[in-house]
Amino acid sequence: MDQISERIQRMKALQAAKSDGSTCPNGLRKSQPIYQCTKCQDQEGYIARDKNGYEVWCWCECHVQRRVERLFKYSRITNEFRRLSFESFILDGRPQPVKNAFACAKAYLEYFSRLRSGRNNSIALLGKSGSGKTHLLIAVANSLLSQGVGVLYFPWIEGMNDLKSNFEVISDKVQQLKQVEVLFIDDLFKGRKTVTDFQLEQLFDMINYRYLNHLPIMVSSEKDIDQLCTIDEAIGSRIYEMCKDFTVILKGDKSLNYRIAGKL
């Protein structure tokens, strides 16, 4: 309610400034600002009166699009990845495990609104490098963002390096990862052979919070469930329980890797 009142007061101030006929010292009229949306003057809403004559705040048509734009900016998904979709994923000639992963990702997106608050509300695509796991989960993320669902992209190596780079703000960063509507962890446990205590501590904090609060995760990794549990059983078992209805493990030879399949 306070936010609505603030918006109404801000809009009144804008309207007053627009109509006051103010001029510059040289006598010329001040130039009017250029708005992306002239209807609401970029406030994402406007003041109207209800049937009883009371002032009410009405959301403008641009509000949804502005929210989607903010979500994409917040998501940390690069411009290159924003172009990835199910339509751009090449299925022709791909092995059956890849087709299974495609079907799983599509089904997860289709049922997301119904399952997002349950225990089994997450998805994991695991296994062979180059099989399209990241592409498919980015396609899910882009679709969710377009629907107004907040997604945060966390590439394992870069994400962990970023957390370590500034301990003064690590708590705030981890809090974002814990509380965002959907967290996408890409290439989990990629890189060095030995996972550090720091990495396990931060990851458990994220996963356990989301597990307890029924907040969805999307996970890609070259490790399967058994390997995840070998690294850390508490983390692996939670990922399994959250993702077990939407998990595909891509096993096979180099034909699964689209980067080199054409050279075989």
Automatic annotation (TrEMBL):
GO biological process, one term: DNA replication
CDD domains (alphabetical): AAA
Short name of one Pfam family: IstB_IS21
Designated name of the protein: AAA+ ATPase domain-containing protein
One annotated GO molecular function: ATP binding
Domain of life (superkingdom): Bacteria
Domain AAA+ ATPase, residue spans: 119-241
